[in-house]
Amino acid sequence: QVHLVESGGGFVQAGHSLRLSCAASGDTSTISTMRWFRRAPGKEREFVGHITSSGRIATYADSVKGRFTISRDNAKNTAYLQMNNMKPEDTGVYYCTANNIWGQGTQVTVSS
């Protein structure tokens, strides 16, 4: 089984950057696509983006396109979410998921 742990969340001002990490452990050889989601206060969970197993293809929600970049280091079994030019509406709990397994999430707060 796969276990996922997100880290890197915090408090930033609008326009600044954060990088989240999602470290996988366990049966990592079975992991293919890795996805990022977020849940803003009082809202439904929202898809942020995903990256294929090779790391060559990543897709993004329109709300983050051009500002967020997903990458992965398969040697470290870790995926990353680089968030630039952040906005207050990026505030929420960010989750990574793979193989229908979810991490516990990491809180991101962006002040205006």
Tell me what the structure shows.
The protein has 112 residues and is mostly beta strands. Helix content is 0%, strand content 55%. The protein has no helices and 11 strands. The strands form 2 sheets. Strands 2, 4, 5, 6, 9, 10 and 11 form a 7-stranded mixed β-sheet that branches. Strand 4 and strand 5 form a beta hairpin. It starts with a strand and ends with a strand.
Main sheet properties: 7 strands, mixed
Uncertain segments: none
Shape: globular
Radius of gyration: 13 Å
Number of strands: 11
Distance from N terminus to C terminus (CA atoms, Å) equals 40 Å
Proportion of helical residues: under 10%
Provide mean pLDDT, rounded. 96
Strand content: over 45%
Given helix and strand content, the structural type is mainly beta
Count of DSSP helices? 0
Element pattern in H and E = EEEEEEEEEEE
